[in-house]
Amino acid sequence: MVALSRWRIIAVVLAALFGILFTLPNVLPASVRDSLPGFLPHKTLNLGLDLQGGSSLLYEVDTAALRTEKLTNLTEDVRTTLRTEQIDFTGLGIVGGEIGVRINDATKVDAAAKALRKAVGAPLAGAVAGRDVTVALAPDQRIRIAFVPQAFEAQAAKAIEQSQEVIRRRVDELGTKEPDIRRQGADRIIIQAPGESDPEKLKNIIGKTAKLTFQMVDENADLAQAQQGQAPPGDMVVPGDDFAPFYVVKRRAFATGEMLIDSQGSFDSQTGRPVVTMRFNGQGAQKFGQTTTANVGKRFAIILDNKVISAPVINGPIPGGTGQITGNFTAESANELAVLLRAGALPAPLKPLEQRTVSAELGQDAIKAGAISLGIGAVAIVVFIVLAYGLFGVFAAVALIVNVLLILGTMSFTQATLTFPGIAGLILTLAVAVDANVLIYERVRDEAHAGRTPIMALEHGYSRALVSILDANITSAISALIMFYFGSGPIRGFAWTLLIGVVTSVFTAVVITQVLIGFWFRATKPKALPIE
Amino acid sequence: MRWPLIRFMPREFHIDFVRLSPFAAVVSALLLLGSIGSFVVQGLNFGIDFRGGTLLEVQTPGPAPLAALRAALPAAGAHDGQVQGFGTATPNAAMIRFRTEGASPDAQIAAVEAKLKAKFPEIQFKPASVVGPKVSGELMTSGFLALGIALILMLGYIWFRFQLQFGLGAVVAVFHDVALTLGLLSVTQIEFSMTSIAALLTVIGYSMNEKVITFDRLRENLRKYKTTPLRDVINKSENERLSRTLITGTTAILALAGAFFLGGPVLFPLVSTMVFGIFIGTYSSVYVALPIILLWGVKRNDDPAVPLKPANVRP
């Protein structure tokens, strides 16, 4: 302990330098910060919405598009049902918000209606006959199928709720920015992100629906006819990629983005080009395996937001449930797509309505009063610890100051968000950091009172207290890691700050005081310790 | 003047902590009952973060008087009001969010508008809209899931480092602390916001830290005094640890004292919860976690656990 090991001194000096370097940008004026050479850190603390305001984006959930999509799906269900029942029909299509179909054989109209009532739609609480779809007979052997009004309301409400979660997951992937995501009015979502957190990047990641489907390319379709809007029944025309202006694909998707369990931006091992890797869940893997086994030599289209991003030829069965998309990606766009796929698709497209700058949630007076009062707290810790332990208290105070620098530096470096309550939490983190020093010093006192020489008392005090300190902090670190991994939004931000504090506190409270006491001991060769 | 002050600290304490356990048990039980009672009767005062409310957009001819608007909200009957200015330098529009009760808050909104109009005659309102809660269902479920897993793993770690009864004692004590803290929030009807969650997590963290430090000294003394009755070892450990507990506790309270008295209405709910947590976390280490261990008994010298027997109790 008194024999100061070189690596310890180096570690302490490096840590102090790191803390100063990475905290420095926060106290420099912006003009000085910009003129710093490029190798020095520039990032400042990411303050939360409560402290500094930021950008506010208002989106509308496109319920009309959701409605169209639901009706299109329902149309396909009607087609499949009638085909399975072997009932011939014509004129299946969407007319005025509902689906109409004409049954060719007049004697089969009732049977068709009965089959449809049974097969299409889903149970819905509070609706007529408890289903979200009504099937009604109309003149001229026609059947009308429509959603009940409550069904649309329920679908819209669910879509808005899901959109909120998807947006939160996507923004969480960008780091701990702690945005505010709230529903506003009937079908709008307001997203507020603190600071200049790059509204463009935010818009990129929020605005995309990220609906991913895998559909077989219809190799037999007449391309010219399809282009004029006459795709064969059960097919659809989708805008294409670099290889073809459009594709005719089967309407039914054999796999979707919902079946993915993971997706990463990566590089192709052979060509070195950016790709997006995918891992399917059990159901997805099975579907993917079956379809590729049955269609060797044919092409399937990977469709993202109604645009083909790639249409590879199936060279052989693809079992195992993993794959990669080789589209026209840059490393960044591949990564962005992977983030979107991981976070899931939006249930309906979002329409941007407005983008504005907003001021902080808290008033400047409140922020100032709070900052002063918390500053008093920090000073109180230092004064108390110096009063209580004298010179050793000064050592602890030095460690504490380095600790603050390290925490602020690491938070700036990792762009963690600092909120008002976060600062109060930090003050308590500092108090717990001091606890480590108190544990050490009390141990040293015990050992000295038990009659050990100063050097032995220090030696034993440190090594014994270290056990308690490590146990206590490992317990904290475990809970921080878990909350960071499983939590979302503000919980993640809290956990991250806690984790930084645990690591820096153990280091500063133990190693820095140890080195300082070591220097002091060598310089003065004391007969007794100041805290005995 | 003897400096540093630590020299005033007696070298040894002889307090019979365990003797007070039955009284503490009664106090804890009463407090728990009170907390649960208050929780059932009046629950927590959930704020706009959890319940949502109303959003009013206002426009003023000149720069929007944000500070004056904030100050005027409580008098206008708008609970948990938040005011944000639009634009950067001198916004002439602002967004006001406040809590509204019930399904048809129109009358309430109209009253707030009228009062604000009386105070700021030139203010103009855009149609009000409903604003949803900041804390979504998924945020809550994932938060509770995370907390649950974290508690289980902390229990596991303490079990691994100490013994099972230590881990259970710690977790029960943490639950005790959380229940009493929620009880305090329910009794005082302090607004329960996203910040309160942060305060609760801090309370849990501080409390867990106390437990591990407590156990550490106990474990060490159990190894040192192999034949001393458990009750005496606990008393000895707590007396040895007392100076540390006093100093650390004082440091933590001092750190928050500034914000407690001068932090203003924004910090007060958070800081008062934390201060309460520091007291309760220290208390529950001695009077919830340790009594559980005392009643259960501990494994010593690799013998099976020996529970507290009448013969072991000092007369």
Present the secondary structure layout:
The complex is a heterodimer of chains A (532) and B (315).
Chain A: H1 6-27, H2 30-35, E1 46-47, H3 49-52, E2 54-61, H4 63-84, E3 89-95, E4 98-103, H5 109-119, E5 133-138, E6 142-147, H6 149-173, E7 180-184, E8 188-194, H7 199-207, E9 212-217, H8 223-227, E10 235-239, E11 246-256, E12 260-267, E13 274-280, H9 282-294, E14 300-304, E15 307-310, E16 322-325, H10 331-343, E17 350-358, H11 364-413, E18 417-418, H12 420-449, H13 454-486, H14 490-524
Parallel strand pairs in A: 1-18
Antiparallel strand pairs in A: 2-8, 2-17, 3-4, 4-6, 5-6, 7-8, 9-11, 9-14, 10-11, 12-13, 13-16, 14-15
Helix pairs in contact in A: 1-11, 4-5, 6-10, 11-12, 11-14, 12-13, 12-14, 13-14
Chain B: H1 21-41, E1 45-46, H2 48-51, E2 53-59, H3 66-75, E3 79-85, E4 93-99, H4 106-119, E5 124-125, E6 129-131, H5 137-161, H6 164-188, E7 191-192, H7 194-224, H8 230-262, H9 264-296
Helix pairs in contact in B: 1-6, 3-4, 5-6, 6-7, 6-9, 7-8, 7-9, 8-9
Total helical segments of chain A: 14
Spatial sequence of strands, sheet with the most strands of chain A? 10-11-9-14-15
Give a short account of the largest sheet of chain B. Answer: 5 strands, antiparallel
> How many angstroms does the end-to-end distance of chain B come to?
42 Å
CATH class assignment of the largest domain in chain A: Mainly Alpha
The geometry of chain A reads as elongated
N-to-C order of helices and strands of chain B: HEHEHEEHEEHHEHHH
Largest interface: A-B, 91 and 85 residues
Structure write-up:
The complex is a heterodimer of chains A (532) and B (315). Chain A has 3 domains: 6-50 and 360-524, Up-down Bundle (Multidrug efflux transporter AcrB transmembrane fold), CATH 1.20.1640; 54-209 and 346-358, Alpha-Beta Plaits (2-Layer Sandwich), CATH 3.30.70; 210-328, Gyrase A, domain 2, CATH 3.30.1360.200. Chain A has a 5-stranded antiparallel sheet. Chain A has a 4-stranded antiparallel sheet with strand order 7-8-2-17. A 4-stranded antiparallel sheet of chain A has the order 3-4-6-5. Chain A is of the alpha+beta class and 532 residues long. Chain A has helices at 6-27, 30-35, 49-52, 63-84, 109-119, 149-173, 199-207, 223-227, 282-294, 331-343, 364-413, 420-449, 454-486, 490-524; strands at 46-47, 54-61, 89-95, 98-103, 133-138, 142-147, 180-184, 188-194, 212-217, 235-239, 246-256, 260-267, 274-280, 300-304, 307-310, 322-325, 350-358, 417-418. In chain B, the strands form 2 sheets. In chain B, strands 2, 3, 4, 5 and 6 form a 5-stranded antiparallel sheet that branches. In chain B, α6 packs antiparallel against α7. Chain B is built from 9 helices and 7 strands. Chain B has helices at 21-41, 48-51, 66-75, 106-119, 137-161, 164-188, 194-224, 230-262, 264-296, and strands spanning 45-46, 53-59, 79-85, 93-99, 124-125, 129-131, 191-192. The radius of gyration of chain B is 26 Å and the shape is elongated. Chain B is α+β, with helices and mostly antiparallel strands and 315 residues long. Chains A and B meet through α6, β7, β17, α11 and α12 of A and α3, β3, β6, α5 and α7 of B.
